[in-house]
Amino acid sequence: MGRDLAKVLITEEELQGKIRELAARIDADYAGKDLLLVGVLKGAVMVMADIARALRLPVQMDWMAVSSYGAGTKSSGVVRVLKDLDTDIAGRHVLVVEDIIDSGLTLSWLLQNLKSRDPASVEVCALLRKPEAVKVPIDVRYVGFDIPNEFVIGYGLDYAERYRNLPFIGTLAPHVYGGEGD
Ligand code: PRP
Ligand code: MN
Ligand code: MG
């Protein structure tokens, strides 16, 4: 692993501090409400697990797995549902938990999909956002960190399914992925 990592962008301590901050805001905003957290597999696994444990509110947790459709481009905006929610979200307060908003295409599609199911509300909590990469502006209520347009790994984020288990966010050395952008 060592040589594949270019640098640590956000340390484990910084991540956990931000998680506590976001959880406190969510606790305050949803006090007295029945909240359903929806994690987007697989990237959101770490942030979902940590946010959920940092909350004081009792919440329910559900998961969706989605995949960009078509070869080549990472996010075509056409999304396939690999695993749908188990929960009927009609009338529910839903908070979508994501690891990163890159182009915004995945979340844009997902939000439209979820809103069509008549929830009481849908908001987004994204640990990371790349303002320079965004193609579709997303209204995000809770953002952890705005980061530069670099290929990031760790804390749920993968490169070719690896590095998800790093407890921090790092950037990948260009030699690993051929030096091209994300
Ligand atoms: C990554 C990331 C977000 C999405 C963001 O997921 O976890 O879900 O891409 O990209 P976008 O804003 O450009 O749409 P990915 O499709 O790699 O699946 P994964 O979570 O299983 O790694
Ligand atoms: Mn993802
Ligand atoms: Mg991925």
TrEMBL record:
The UniProt record lists the keyword Secreted: no
Pathway(s) per entry: Purine metabolism; GMP biosynthesis via salvage pathway; GMP from guanine: step 1/1; Purine metabolism; IMP biosynthesis via salvage pathway; IMP from hypoxanthine: step 1/1
Biological process annotations from GO: GMP salvage; guanine salvage; hypoxanthine metabolic process; IMP salvage; purine ribonucleoside salvage
A cellular component term, taken from the record's GO annotations: cytosol
Enzyme class: transferase
EC number: 2.4.2.8
Keywords on record: Cytoplasm, Glycosyltransferase, Magnesium, Metal-binding, Nucleotide-binding, Purine salvage, Transferase
Cofactors named for this entry: Mg(2+)
CDD domains (UniProt xref): PRTases_typeI
Domain (Phosphoribosyltransferase) ranges: 17-159
GO molecular function, one term: hypoxanthine phosphoribosyltransferase activity
Keyword Protein transport attributed: no
One Pfam family recorded for the sequence: Pribosyltran
InterPro entries found in the cross-reference section: HGPRT, Hxn_phspho_trans, PRTase-like, PRTase_dom
Reaction equation(s) it catalyzes: IMP + diphosphate = hypoxanthine + 5-phospho-alpha-D-ribose 1-diphosphate; GMP + diphosphate = guanine + 5-phospho-alpha-D-ribose 1-diphosphate
Family per record: Belongs to the purine/pyrimidine phosphoribosyltransferase family.
Database matches in PANTHER family: HYPOXANTHINE PHOSPHORIBOSYLTRANSFERASE, HYPOXANTHINE-GUANINE PHOSPHORIBOSYLTRANSFERASE
NCBIfam families per the UniProt record, alphabetical: HGPRTase (TIGR01203)
Protein name: Hypoxanthine phosphoribosyltransferase
